[in-house]
Automatic annotation (TrEMBL):
GO terms for biological process: DNA replication, synthesis of primer. This is Replicative DNA helicase. Residues 181-452 form the SF4 helicase domain. InterPro entries: DNA_heli_DnaB-like_N_sf, DNA_helicase_DnaB, DNA_helicase_DnaB-like_C, DNA_helicase_DnaB-like_N, DNA_helicase_N/primase_C, P-loop_NTPase. GO terms for molecular function: 5'-3' DNA helicase activity; ATP binding; ATP hydrolysis activity; DNA binding. Belongs to the helicase family. DnaB subfamily. Pfam families: DnaB, DnaB_C.
Length: 462
């Protein structure tokens, strides 16, 4: 970043700053070589005075070269770069070391410098937004997007976490182990016993990718994952639907809850009895804390802001996105290729999961390479448009229907309507397959009691 002083003028007031603390921090670094205490917290542009920015940049340069940092090395480096006089000369640099009261307060002082910088940036962002908004040629939607991006970039400065002693970590683990668990699961259950036994429920801070080719039952699966905790456990769930409208999703959930064929609902071909069933059997669905957002082409920064608001207002426990490839990155990343954009989106999804301490489930498409493969079985490399998705994910589950590939029987028993949930990656558990029943006409998923391995299915290879 440029060392030129940022313009914070416009309100006729002196911007937030603390020259004395800036001098004290710089002096303490030179006097006691304690830059390691603040190096992960302070950046040059956070100092209000331009000469302080230059001096701190020199200190960072010396630290990277493993050189000692004192007034002599700082002065020598400034002289070599021709910047000594511009910062106030030898006298000014030497005087900084006399501003130090105690190195014990350097971290506290540095945090105040950061806070003053953040306050100045809020003023700058707000002022620029106001000025731009007054211009007739301004695209308001682009302006809002840019402001969101600026605020997000700014908020990242306050998310640094202090290091923890192993004793504190162990104490926290013991406390968690002593906490009773419900239903034998530590995470949010799906109500599908075969799957829950493998996942132990969806875990807080995890990013779970559900990937499949078209017609594999992704929508039925994700709606089940959304409805069960919301209806049965009264846990608030936030569902982003980028592919279908909220009414289309509602119809599918009603089909499942009321036991009415989805095709009849879409054609409004319901008898008076069916209509009574809909009213009666969807009462629990209406009362559930399930929130649907069907914003198309959702921007990743808008997504993050909406998740934060939902966490504050509803204390959401689970976030679901249908589906990842329909999201768009922030304006700053759109000049790159699509793979880089998807990579930045998947990293943001993981960051949101960690920040809000909730599981984030994202549906993803698989490439056509699955169809080209002799056995038709998906692989991690089949996830479309980004290899980083599989790296960012804590769990990757492939949905696979043998029936779709012409296999109707296994050892004399029908596999029509059977769905395999194949856990291909599990950072904190086992990789295995959960067998499920899918009734596509009613958008209903249940457990399947018959165990089988997809690769051992007889009939046409898939």
């Amino acid at each position: 970043m440029s060392r030129n002083q940022t313009n914070y003028s416009g309100l006729g007031k002196l911007p937030p700053q603390s020259i004395e603390l800036e001098e004290a921090v710089l002096g303490a670094i030179m006097e006691m070589d304690v830059i390691s205490t603040v190096i992960d917290m302070l950046r040059p542009e956070m100092f209000y005075k331009t000469n302080h920015q230059i001096i701190y940049s020199v200190m960072l340069s010396l630290a990277k070269q493993n050189e000692p940092i004192d007034e002599l090395t700082v002065i020598a480096t400034l002289r070599a770069s021709g910047e000594l006089e511009s910062v106030g000369g030898m006298f000014y640099v030497t005087e900084l070391t006399r501003r130090v009261a105690s190195a014990a307060n350097i971290e506290f002082n540095a945090r105040i410098i950061v806070q003053k910088f953040l306050a100045r940036e809020v003023i700058r962002i707000s002022t620029e937004a106001i000025q731009t908004a007054y211009e007739d040629t301004t695209d308001v939607l682009e302006l809002v997007e840019q402001v969101e991006k600026n605020i997000y970039d700014l908020s990242s400065h306050k998310n640094s976490k202090k290091q923890s002693k192993i004793s504190d970590v162990v104490d926290e683990c013991i406390e968690i182990l002593s906490t009773p668990i419900k239903n034998g699961l530590t995470g949010i259950p799906t109500g599908l016993t075969n799957l829950d036994k493998l996942t132990n429920g969806w875990q807080d801070t995890d990013l779970i990718i559900i990937a499949a080719r078209p017609a594999m039952g992704k929508t039925a699966f994700v709606l089940h994952c959304a409805k069960y905790p919301a209806i049965k456990l009264n846990k608030p769930v936030l569902l982003f639907s980028l592919e279908m409208s909220e009414v289309q999703l509602g119809n599918r959930m009603i089909a499942d809850e009321a036991g009415i064929c989805l095709d009849d609902i879409q054609k409004r071909n319901l008898s008076p009895y069916d209509k009574e069933k809909v009213i009666s059997l969807t009462r629990n669905l209406k009362k559930s804390p399930l929130i649907i957002d069907d914003t198309p082409a959702l921007n990743i920064l808008e997504f993050r802001a909406k998740c934060r608001r939902a966490k504050q207002q509803h204390d959401i426990k689970l976030i679901i996105i249908d589906y990842l490839q329909l999201m768009v990155g922030d304006a700053g990343n759109r000049n790159g290729n699509r793979e880089q954009e998807i990579g930045s989106i998947s990293r943001m999804l993981k960051a949101v999961a960690k920040e809000l301490k909730v599981p984030v489930i994202a549906l993803s498409q698989l490439s056509r390479k699955v169809e080209e493969r002799a056995n038709k079985m998906p692989m991690l490399s089949d996830i479309r448009e980004s290899g980083s998705i599989e790296q960012d994910a804590d769990m990757v589950i492939f949905l696979h229907r043998p029936e779709y590939y012409g296999i109707t029987e296994f050892e004399g028993k029908s596999v029509v309507g059977k769905l395999s949930a194949i856990i291909a990656k599990h950072r904190n558990g086992v990789c295995d397959t959960a067998q499920l029943d899918l009734n596509a006409a009613y958008m209903r998923l249940t457990d399947w009691e018959i165990d089988f391995e997809p690769t051992e299915l007889k009939g046409e290879s898939f």
